[in-house]
């Protein structure tokens, strides 16, 4: 598959007996996940399999979303799809203003710290494994990788005071963060 994809949500569980599923959307607003079709299903390990899903009906349900996958009309069949990520083609997403990024673009980036004694030669803290919403600001989970300064995981705030720059082409982020934290 030559098209670049990004994770847009997760099939969280079954809904009813007619093949509907609960959808946990990573898009804002959440309903936007249905604008981006088709969906590519990931396996249980999070690897995209090439299996394509097409949503033929969807609606809000309580505080969440539910959808019917075309060709799936049985609760047990729908259950086989659940607890799996869905991805969409990056080209389907609207372009962002300069300096803004989709989370998926940041995952896997090498994070270099330019803190105090490392101003001349930044040190590698690790790679971004995931991003989390906390309410106040998003947080980067930076995990150790080959060449990192140590084997510690770090939580860094994704705010301008910490993030000095992002280079999508190089796959790097420069931060102002004390490596001792």
Structural description of this entry:
It contains two helices and 13 strands. With 181 residues, the chain is mostly beta strands. The chain folds into two domains: 5-92, Beta Barrel (Elongation Factor Tu (Ef-tu), domain 3), CATH 2.40.30; 103-175, SH3 type barrels (Roll), CATH 2.30.30. The longest helix is centred in the middle third of the chain and has 5 residues, at 75-79. The protein is elongated. The termini are far apart. The relative contact order is 0.16.
Summarize the model shown.
The strands form 2 sheets. A 7-stranded antiparallel β-sheet has the order 4-3-7-1-2-6-5. A 6-stranded mixed β-sheet has the order 11-10-9-8-13-12.
Tell me the helix content: under 10%
Number of domains: 2
Shape estimate? elongated
Number of strands: 13
Do you know the CATH architecture of the largest domain? Beta Barrel
Mean pLDDT: 90
The low-confidence parts are: none
- Structure annotation, total helices: 2
Question: How far is the N terminus from the C terminus?
Answer: 40 Å
Major beta-sheet overview: 7 strands, antiparallel
Strand order of the largest sheet: 4-3-7-1-2-6-5
As a percent range, the share of strand residues is 35-45%
Q: What's the CATH topology label of the largest domain?
A: Elongation Factor Tu (Ef-tu), domain 3
Order of helices and strands: EEEEEEHEHEEEEEE
Kindly provide the name of the CATH class of the largest domain. Mainly Beta
Give the structural class: mainly beta
Radius of gyration: 19 Å
CATH superfamily of the largest domain: RimM
């Amino acid at each position: 598959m030559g098209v670049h994809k990004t994770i847009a949500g997760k099939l969280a569980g079954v809904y009813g007996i007619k093949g509907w599923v609960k959808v946990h959307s990573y898009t804002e607003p959440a309903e936007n996940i249905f604008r981006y079709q088709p969906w590519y299903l990931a396996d249980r390990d999070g690897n995209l399999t090439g299996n394509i899903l097409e949503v033929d009906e969807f609606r809000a349900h309580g505080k969440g979303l539910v959808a019917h996958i075309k060709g799936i009309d049985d609760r047990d069949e729908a259950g086989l799809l659940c607890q799996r990520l869905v991805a969409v083609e990056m080209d389907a997403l609207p372009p962002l203003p300069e300096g803004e990024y989709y989370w998926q673009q940041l995952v896997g980036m090498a994070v270099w710290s330019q803190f105090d004694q490392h101003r001349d030669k930044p040190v590698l803290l690790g790679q971004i494994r995931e991003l989390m919403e906390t309410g106040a600001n998003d947080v980067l989970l930076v995990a150790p990788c080959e060449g990192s300064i140590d084997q510690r995981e770090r939580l860094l705030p994704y705010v301008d005071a910490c993030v000095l720059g992002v280079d999508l082409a190089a796959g790097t982020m420069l931060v102002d963060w004390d490596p001792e934290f």
